[in-house]
Amino acid sequence: MAVGRTQAVALLGLHGAIVEIEADYSSQLPKFILIGLPDAALGEARDRVLAAAANSGCDLPSRRLTVNLSPAALPKQGSGFDLGIALATLAAAGIVSSRSIAEVVHLGELGLDGRLRPITGILPAVSAAAAAGFEAVMVPTGNADEASLVPGIRVIAVASLREAAIRHGAEFEPVDVEPILIAHPEPEQEEDLDLADVIGNDDAVEAMIVAAAGGHHAFLLGPPGSGKTMLAARLPGLLPDLDAATALDVSSIRSLSGLAVGDALVTRPPLESPHHTATAAALLGGGSKQIRPGAAARASGGVLFLDEAPEFNSSVLDALRQPLESGVISIHRANAVAHFPGRFQLVLAANPCPCGQYGARDSECTCTPSARRRYLGRLSGPLLDRIDIQLRVQRITSAQLKLAREGTRITSAAARVRVTAARECAAERLAGTPWTVNSQVPGFWLRGPHARLGGVVTASIDRALERGGITMRGYDRVLRLSWTLADLDHADSPSADHVGRALYLRKALSA
Amino acid sequence: MAAKDDLGRRGEDLAARFLEASGYTVIDRNWRCARGEIDLVARDGNDTVFIEVKTRSSTAFGHPFEAITTQKLARLKRLAMAWTQAHPYRRGPMRIDAIAVIAAAGEQPRIEHLRRVF
User: Fold this and answer.
1) Which tens digit of pLDDT belongs to each residue from A317-351?
2) Which residues of A touch B98 (CB under 8 A)?
3) What is the architecture, at CATH level 2, of domain A4-167?
4) Are A118 and A79 in contact (CB under 8 A)?
5) Is the dihedral of CA A349, A354, A356, A361 positive or negative?
6) pLDDT tens digits, residue range A155-166?
7) Chain A 294-333, CB below 8 Å of chain B: which residues?
8) Which CATH number fits domain A206-433: 1.10.10.60, 1.20.1250.20, 3.40.50.300, 3.90.550.10?
9) Widest CA span in chain A
């Protein structure tokens, strides 16, 4: 009997590796041996495959069956190898064509009745198969929509092992079965979060537009009820649609997290707002065998909003420093390293003190000065250093409310137009550099010959630097914000007014 | 005698005939000691072969080979040792084989032979 050989995909983070599945019958007492570092779920493939084959009408030899997953040293998880194992076994038994299965990548979990169940992570797995040069991939019917989102590979959707075997040349009578589909949750109600809902707080609204235009991280400081959460939740609505590569990344992460992807790539930036009891594993990703993406990875391409930031464990917050720096989340485990995209825009919100009232115009703070200092001291300097916009927001007064009723407010749609135009401005200016938005540009470039501003323009921050009011790093951040403000105004370069406004966007903590 | 014992007896006869036809010499049948029983002992060239014969009238409750468990093989190995002790003049390599006989009523019985299973 020949060796049956086919392929499946093992996922590590978003990276998929092609795994070769070999099956061989030897003249020994009946036994099913599965080797090549399977985890518990994959080890149980043995029983699923045998039952599914029997219930699909395949008469397998009563001999020793050895299934090898190679490369043998690569850890493999999950039930997505079932279909590949079953078909390699059928090929070893001479029921399906060995040549036919060798050219196709097989993904899918088997039910005992032989029907195929959809699996998570189809999108990155099919992408990996396409990248490895395979022309066809066989997936469960329930995953067909998601798999077809990947260009350049033919998707063969099958409902059962019997149907898969027939496709590969087995002589069975086709039997119609009801395919198992993904339980689609109700399509998420597109919450109508419009910027026009925010009244008063014009400074803060403008700051959110600046954050969206330049991709700047933001820190909002203010008493409870000043609209911090409301503002942060509206930031994704201001961002432009995702580009093709980011859309694939965002959809792949969703697929890997077991969330519904549907029949189109995600095009709107995601918003993740983990609770302040989140652990480092919940925020960045983790797990000992299967490494799963955390909230920060799910927010990649969009906004990661940490409400009540000082309540987070400080080590958890500091774990964000590495992705903020590199745009990649790397999770190291004993047997593997997984990488996830980590290009999210961070928005932190905090009360000014434990009771929340410090600095509010209408109430008294009851905290001692040391309690106040300790509270914000939980946000480490290095983390705050990476946040361009640091803004104080205030509760609105009745006068502002009255004014707001009369005036017109900017809507998210209008703001998005401004943001998109400003981003185009920046991209044009930064053409030929590795950067596309202002937040990515390093200080030396801003102070260098390409972007040097006149002494008159920077006079206010030069003076602040002299007095020790801001540090050199803070100086660079103000320059960066000035450029974004200039882009929003369609100015060729920042004016003294832009620099002054940029300085204002930084003053929450120093004021 | 119960029907299942009849079937087992018939299976062993068939297996013995099958082995003779394949050039083996059957030297012992149903050898018993305190620990149990060896179905067949045969000689294949220089090898002493201990054979477990499993007979079934259909595969409805699984293939006969599936009934040969690791424990059964371990017992067979101990029995093989006991047999060699009782027959010290028999020297040379030993091995354990398994034979499955599927003897459906009114059909030609099917015999499968696995060599060196333990």
Assistant:
1) 989 988 988 889 999 887 788 899 999 999 999 99
2) 29
3) 2-Layer Sandwich (3.30)
4) no
5) negative
6) 999 999 999 999
7) none
8) 3.40.50.300
9) 89
